[in-house]
Amino acid sequence: MKDFHGKVAVITGAGAGIGRALALELARNGAQLALSGRNLENVAETVALCEKEGAKARAYRLDVADRAAVYAHADEVVADFGKVNIVINNAGVSLTANIEEVAWEDLEWIFGINYWGTLHGVKAFLPHVIASGDGHIANVSSMFGLVACPSQGGYSSSKYAMHAISDALRQEMIIAGYNVGVSSVHPGMIKTEIAWKARAAANRSRDDLAANFDRLAQTSPEDCARVIVNGIRKNKPLILIGKDAKAMNIMRRLLGSGYMKPLTAQMRKEI
């Protein structure tokens, strides 16, 4: 997709962070925007910022874990904009807990949003993206959708699953001959509030975990958005964001399952 002008882009999790930055980046590139999130007030703020850039934008309240709501949202967006070219499944949450200690309720919560939320978005919007004749779907996974890390088993498994959806769908679109690109997006640590809204095991301090995340995060949401939009423009199957994500990918490719040895050693020092 070389040109975003006049294209209709759907972005979930658009009330802040990467989602808001994506909306603004696409607005500056001439796209029209259907923006959603659970907090409608925050999404409305994003809409106002996009309108200042001259873009047509609309805010929707949406819980991506609610399948019926996502399908209804797809119908509403098509009614409002007439078409859908781009879908960015960005809504996501985080969870820190060892497999031994993690609560089932927390696993169901994170899979409901990260995995099922992504699949709901893909399935609900795919017919419309195909019908547009020039479409793209980007699913925002994580660097932990490339490698698994101690205390991130629930989070990593939900993000690995998103990566699998993206890779399978990309191949299916090619085989079917549809002009629909698919990208799996893998950010490293981005300076957003995701860690402050995360869940953690009872024996862990969320504030301490979030403060440590903030200390390590080096990439801004704006830089992240620019990389994603450029990756969509170039129809990249894999979009890596940040030195940390690129390092994880290199380690995975060079060492195979051997990546776990240095990662385990490093995590042992930090725990």
From TrEMBL:
It is an enzyme of class 1 (oxidoreductase). GO terms for cellular component: membrane. Residues 7-193 form the Ketoreductase domain. Pfam families: adh_short. SUPFAM superfamilies: NAD(P)-binding Rossmann-fold domains (SSF51735). Keywords: Oxidoreductase. The keyword 4Fe-4S does not apply. Its EC number is 1.3.1.-, 1.3.1.25. One of its GO terms (molecular function) is 1,6-dihydroxycyclohexa-2,4-diene-1-carboxylate dehydrogenase activity. Belongs to the short-chain dehydrogenases/reductases (SDR) family. This is Acetoin dehydrogenase. It comes from Nocardia seriolae.
